[in-house]
Amino acid sequence: MNVEPSVRVEDKLYYNRYLVDVGHPHVRIRAHKTPSPQLLALLKACPARCYELNDDGQVEIAVDGCIECGTCRVIAEPTGDIQWSHPRGGYGVLFKFG
Amino acid sequence: MIEERFDAIVVGAGMAGNAAALTMARHGMKVLQLERGEYSGSKNVQGAILYADMVEKLVPKFREEAPLERHVIEQRFWMMDDRSHVGMHYRSEDFNEERPNRYTIIRAQFDKWLSSKVREAGAIVLCETTVTELAQDDRKRIVGVRTDRQDGEIHADVVVLAEGVNGLLGTRAGLRARPTPDTVALAVKEMHFLPRETIEARFNLKGDEGVVIEAAGTISRGMTGMGFIYANKECISLGIGCLVADFQRTGQTPYGLLDQFKRHPSVAPLIAGSEVKEYSAHLIPEGGYKSIPQLYGEGWVVVGDAAQLNNAIHREGSNLAMTSGRIAAEAIGLIKSRGEPMTAANLSIYKKMLDDSFVIKDLKKYKDLPPLMHTHSQNFFLTYPQLISKAMQNFVRVDGTPKAEKEKASLKSFVKARSWSGLVGDACRLARAWR
After folding, report:
1. Is residue B97 included in any domain, yes or no?
2. Phi/psi at B81 (nearest 5 deg)?
3. Is there a contact between B129 and A89 if contact means CB atoms under 8 Å apart?
4. Reported pTM
5. Whose CB among B20, B40, B158, B371 lies 3.0–4.6 Å from B325's, allowing a Cys bridge?
6. B280 vs A1, A92, A95: nearest CB
């Protein structure tokens, strides 16, 4: 039973409240020509689907919908593929229920 | 820059941080608590079940004022395959007691309340402030923190790191290792809103009675993982989590698992017609006893999820966090009352006190279970649930086959899937790890 195509993560993120820190992404990807296995794993493992493949086959990130779990850090920080910090105070996801 | 000096700085306002800040403030200490969210709770995610005993130790009359959802009178364990579940339910009128033992809660609301107690006790709580770095002196002692709010350092005799599972500050300062894919699980959760009466009818409840369901089996597609369904007053918390290493290895998506769990024929009717109001995700420490890092050092202690204090088998985390925060604060209060410095040697009393508590005793009891579950996940989360479901169906379905033949068929299916030595081995391994 493969249900992934029907799951629209963007719709899920729409329920959430965010204060986006425009111009200050808290997660950055190291520039690369071809992505490492760790970076590629983030395309699937990130629960907010922040990581996407661009037309050149490189992994890009849009942090606006990030729910700050840290999964990408655990997978791809050790290899230096990403730099991960908390958003500045007050910014990022604002859980109403948690 | 804040010129004044504090007795203690607490980083984080989750269960551990709030327990620590509250306890130290009550000891008359000058406490600064820093939280990156807009209020305590706005970055915190949990199922969530609250255990009364640990809260009572902080706020004895919490039942009269804390935002609680339902007191849990029924626990369901489900072992699931794709079309069925085998359940063990425990429901008792004993849980309808004057001072109930467990409650479902909504973390953002509960934490906000607990934080109000911290302020009442006299601590300074500064929200919307991310601590960016630990301040160290030339002898590598932790002497305070740096924040993104202003330049310069804020100093304190001791820093309580209640920074949560990611533990960025401690790992960056080299106090402990970064969590690894095989020691943390990623859980995703949705909040499903329904009218109160609908929830009570679907879960067979009256008044503020509550039910919690823990589910395992093919819902995690062979990965080490669990699903949960908790009834709140007017919403249902529903989620699923698996080891990050398993997500990484299999390429399964967390939202795909969640979606499949929601569509399961045993689950879908419970949430039918609901309105989803939030989607969240969080890491859960799963490494158990063997993953507990160094808990104290020169001028610092670490508590809660940041210290990997989570009992994955019993799904207990926030109570371990709360207890470790309180015990660390009591240890610090003791050192302070003796007028002694916050050295590693003096702070080691925190570890001694924690070792003597249920926190470390419980984690020690199950020290071999996480590795067993992680390395044999296919068997425990896929093969056995399917076999048990088939055996159950074989047992209850009446179709003219003699019972002896049915039993033989069920046994044969187990042996075929795992072999005799595999079955005996799994049983021994499980028994040994549980003991």
Report:
1. no
2. -115, -170
3. yes
4. 0.95
5. B20
6. A95
